């Protein structure tokens, strides 16, 4: 890979990014809709034409042909006569589909539809790949009818469009997006599911006015395009133990439905225990945290046992949000509150963390007079990056505003025997104030929530000036917006960043979701020509 710096051209930098510009689901969809409409809109403006189309009435059934696949995972059908876009879930480009119109967003020139059937499949559609009986109704998956190769290519385009639509940067400043990093498992990967159910209104009465026994409501996930729960008995995205736990929890709720006055969100979280065997060296290699086997009543009661060379694996399904779940990434062990945040696809975490390890140092770091040797992990959570990267650094520090996460992170550092690793609860307003590391020798890792970084955090980052930044994001659209602030920098402070690489990671196969990793290096503004 060529790491040579690209010249920074002030004239080619776009206007400052609008930080209040939203990058939620509707905005991402609208950006794709606008791209389809733009050629016709430009033509109409040139001809002085601007007439509102007469749209089909709600609940009209009609046939459409899909033009493109949106970053939301929905197909988009462009009607040239109407200069209008119909959003069609569960379709791919080239599909001719029968749909039902459910809602018009006339001011934005698109309409939401329900998918009814495929009349003629597009060239990339393969319904034999679908493994879920609820696909095309449940809101969870969008892409099961696509080959995995096509899914990865689509997610690369999602990242490309995120930077094109939400960064405000000219293409000159954004490197080519790398191929999407695949998940080893495309089904059976989710270590956490949270189905839910709602209780209806007043209880039903018999003819004599006595309340009838409560009926068991649908337990599962929402229908696509509706605020209604769908009864889902099984989800093929879940790991084996999570799928067993789902069946057990559905049975438990049905047996105890009279005790629920309201609806509830259920938790199924995989927890793993490795028990060392009496083989040479096994006990010294296998990390184990005593007392973290889920207590009776905090799990579904299901158990899966797997025999490995040096240890026995026991998998359970934790159902109590406040109980502790445990998982391993290679030989690292992590405990966390079961209802708290931790990545939900364990199968990709080994490759994902190895990729991050390969990117922590710039080329030639070991030859540098002041090499990077300190790690600062902002938004550290329970310590995923601080712990898996710590052996590469002289000292590592994770900071987070959530005190509960810091407690878990410290426990995890002790369990993994990492004496050079610390964690501190920090005030968001002064996150970098007491950092003991020189910025010239510090790698900063940031992994914010979906909403991205705040303005204040980004300004603190520019003040601190870490030499290298790894930005991990579960929302590539807010990542693109934030990265643009770093790239544009602050000329008065003579600080900006250059993007070295951007890559998507497929944490959630079969869905339209992609995570992003951007690597940035500190730079300065070129001297102005006299």
From TrEMBL:
InterPro entries: MeTrfase_TrmA_AS, MeTrfase_TrmA_CS, NA-bd_OB-fold, SAM-dependent_MTases_sf, TRAM_dom, tRNA_(uracil-5-)_MeTrfase, U5_MeTrfase_fam. Catalyzes the formation of 5-methyl-uridine at position 54 (m5U54) in all tRNA. May also have a role in tRNA stabilization or maturation. Residues 1-16 have a biased composition (Basic residues). S-adenosyl-L-methionine binds at residues 343, 379, 400, 447. The keyword Ribosomal protein does not apply. The lineage of its organism: Eukaryota, Fungi, Dikarya, Ascomycota, Pezizomycotina. The active site is at residue 474. Residues 17-43 have a biased composition (Basic and acidic residues). The keyword Acyltransferase does not apply. Residues 1-54, 198-217 are annotated as: Disordered. GO terms for molecular function: tRNA (uracil(54)-C5)-methyltransferase activity, S-adenosyl methionine-dependent. Its EC number is 2.1.1.35. Residues 53-117 form the TRAM domain. Keywords: Methyltransferase, S-adenosyl-L-methionine, Transferase, tRNA processing. Pfam families: TRAM, tRNA_U5-meth_tr. It catalyses: uridine(54) in tRNA + S-adenosyl-L-methionine = 5-methyluridine(54) in tRNA + S-adenosyl-L-homocysteine + H(+). Belongs to the class I-like SAM-binding methyltransferase superfamily. RNA M5U methyltransferase family. It comes from the Eukaryota. One of its GO terms (biological process) is methylation. This is tRNA (uracil(54)-C(5))-methyltransferase.
